């Protein structure tokens, strides 16, 4: 089945794009569960701007605690707490925050180490330069930690190509994506460590409304990958949220 345009009429008049984005990570996880080797687990993660944690569940009874400005040592004697100096710079500011729709794969044999991340692009990832920089910085940091990263961009109301911007961030250029960057695309990226010299590698595919999606390699180690089947999981996610 072809890729739909979830951000323009007529589809967006009946279905919000975030219903697909919210369902797709779970469908990907269900699909990956049948393919991951023993010792690996995939989990969905959705972070929405403005979502809050109920801090009431973290409140503790403060009976018996030392008063502010003091600290009890092992002998029960109050000692003064070090008071830091005033900040040398103090302004009102907000750190960039944006919606995140992800699938994360962990290696449970090595203390649940994150080995792969699928990033489904939302409009908030592309709407401002600082949001794009935050997203690119996140992807670069994951790659540096030997986490493979797959980027899936279906957003047709923005014109940023975050894969190309990621390459620019690491000082590289993928010429087909630089000279004529596709508005929507999918890319799997990794930074190999067991080869000398170390290498940045990617598998890219321009996407188009009306065309089927691709399958990307999702790397768990430098020598082990599983297929990330975008087409079948996309269709199942559309069916779950009644998009036909």
Q: Tags for this entry?
A:
globular, six-stranded mixed beta sheet, 25% helix, alpha+beta, two-stranded antiparallel ribbon, 244 residues
Number of strands: 10
What is the arithmetic mean of pLDDT? Answer: 86
Distance between the termini: 10 Å
Domain unit count: 1
Give the overall shape, derived from the CA principal axes: globular
- Along the chain, the helix and strand elements come as HEEEEEHHEHHEEEEH
Number of helices: 6
Strand order of the largest sheet: 1-4-5-6-7-8
Report the sheet with the most strands, covering strand number, pairing sense and barrel closure: 6 strands, mixed
Runs in which pLDDT lies below 50 for 5 or more consecutive residues are 52-67
Oligomer: single chain
Broad structural category: alpha+beta
User: How large is the radius of gyration?
Assistant: 22 Å
Approximate strand percentage: 25-35%
Helix content: 25-40%
